[in-house]
Amino acid sequence: MAFKYDMIIKDGLVFDGSGELPVRKDIAIVDGKLLEGNESFDAANAAEVIDASGKWVMPGLVDVHTHYDLEIEITPGLPESVRHGTTTVVMSNCSLGLAFGAQRKDNDDPIVSCFARVENMPKHVLKKVADKVHWNSSEGYLEHLNTLKLGPNIVPMIPHSMLRIEVMGLEDSVSRHPTPEELSQMKALLQKGMEQGYAGFSTDALPFHFLANDPNRDKQIPTQFAPFSEIKALTSIVRDYDRVWQATPPKDSPPKVVRTFLLTSGLFHKKPLKTTVVAALDVASNGSIVKLATILSRILNSKLLNGRFYMQALAAPFKIWSDGPFNPLSEEIEELRELIETDLEDRAARRAILDDPQFQKRFRKMWMTGKVGFNLAKLKRMIRREDYAFNREFSDMFIDSCPVKHWESKSFQDIFETIIAGDRPEGFETVNDEADLMIAMFRAFDTDLVWSTTSANRDPALTRKLLMDPALLPGFNDSGAHLTNMAFYDCNLRALKLAQEGGDKDVSYMVRRLTRDVSEIFGIKSGTLMTGARADITIIDPQTLKTYDGEANVERIYREEFEHDQLVNRSDGIVFATIIAGKIAWKNNEFSRKLNLEPFGRVMTAQEPTFLAAE
């Protein structure tokens, strides 16, 4: 029998991505494209029928901040995103990516050196990826991506660190400014990438991101050595092509933040520059950051300045897990950074550092700053204006696992009080203050100590307010990065759950933000359920979503592909189905057997007109 429709989704409450209130209706799919129906489609004419009664049907969710550049080379189906309803991912964020190949030269291995510490990925896995790289240009990279058996659609950008390495070499890219000729070469390569359809250009200025290989372990990644004149010259090309500049702020210098992000202004630069920035977070140690982020967004997007500036807001508590001293925020503190400059496997090197009396003295001074005496540091700590994003509050730090099993699930404060009371295991005999305990923990357990703390977004009401703010953008999930430090794959679902508190109107708004709005910003053909659109669809059970506790559903699993543990989320039961190009990738808590074996998604470029532009 020849069917008229490949699939019919029956009787769902359809949020079409426009922001309008949902309508209960059917959707049909033919050849991977959508047909909307105000009336019912005849199920007898469909090869497959999905009963969506009682469920939400919406455009496939978009994840705007991922670091999947390496994982797609190993597992192109990206299962940890597919299971949460994500059908499109933006990658090559924070200046890192594979657009120019392996870039190995003069014994440098940029993929390993750039990714290992920034994204906390094992070097041996990174080296495997680098060994497989066979292209050496942005054009060749797009051709390569189009050969992969992609799960979600992929939206790549041109990464600034790799662009600098391509022109200057790794060593020079972290030691000097480019010559005029080198800057011209960078501009030409970036322009070529824009002509090829790359959706944007990514840079980075956070003081947490360092190289991992000798002799540059004490240096930040190449993008951070760029003068403002270089950033301005390169972003002018992005502006000309109406593409996106993804950036992070130089957080320790408010004047530099303002100067940098005034680049979005159409008043000063003739035309607005679409700019998306990490991140609008309610940082526990510094409450001014989130206020400054929202104020800055409103000023830059005012009619006078005419900017297109979007700070990304995270839809979850910013909970970070640490393996011993290893976590992303440790990089901002010199003493912790000295420990994590060592390779992950090199326990002996860290033990030697921890045994050094001079290091212990410096560590003690750092850890106790603002905690003892009465001084400026103590005052800043009291009013939540500390310089560190890293949270040093013992009562907020909890042990997930360690060799002393009865310490598990307890806070560091609990352990400290127990030790001071006289219960002192071997190696903890001389602990007298907090700094002593931290040093003893790292000496005794190293990475066998797994602990967590929530550094930002502790107030759900404020997190919801940030997500619903039209000046901000839901994002900053960091999917595919920080394998054992973060688990935000479910944050699009968490955003929908927070919006659900306001009923269908707020859910419609959030669906638009997670689909159509981000698609329009990145210039990709996605985010709608209009007739003729590619059939990327997420179907959600709202009742299961209502009771979902994301914090209680984080698991640490072993990923064979990485030969390493990974923190993941398990939201099973919420996403009833993830459909990509009309094919079911996930349904009823099971992946399609074809995921990773045949293509579902495609490479999305900014060359084709968006649906919004076509209206």
Q: How is this structure best described in words?
A:
The model has no long low-confidence stretch (mean pLDDT 93). 52% of the residues are buried. The chain folds into two domains: 61-317 and 457-614, Metal-dependent hydrolases (TIM Barrel, Alpha-Beta Barrel); 341-449, no CATH class. The chain contains 23 helices and 23 strands. By secondary structure, it is an alpha/beta fold. Strands 1, 2, 3, 4, 5, 18, 21, 22 and 23 form a nine-stranded mixed beta sheet that branches. Strands 9-10-11-12-13-17 form a six-stranded parallel beta sheet, with helices on both faces. The protein starts with 6 loop residues before the first strand and ends with a helix.
Helices and strands, with pairings:
Layout lengths: L6 E8 L8 E8 L2 E5 L11 E3 L4 E4 L1 E3 L7 H4 L4 H4 L3 E5 L19 H9 L4 H10 L5 H8 L7 E3 L2 E2 H9 L1 H4 L6 H17 L3 E3 L25 H13 L3 E4 L6 H8 L4 H4 L4 E7 L7 H13 L7 E6 L4 E6 L10 H7 L6 H9 L1 H12 L7 H7 L14 E5 L10 H9 L13 H12 L4 E7 L3 H9 L3 E3 L16 H10 L3 H19 L14 E4 L1 H5 L7 E6 L4 E6 L5 E6 L2 E5 L2 E2 L19 H4 L1
Parallel strand pairs: 1-4, 1-5, 6-7, 7-8, 9-10, 10-11, 11-12, 12-13, 13-17
Antiparallel strand pairs: 1-2, 2-3, 5-18, 14-16, 15-16, 18-21, 19-20, 21-22, 22-23
Helix pairs in contact: 3-4, 6-8, 8-9, 15-18, 20-21
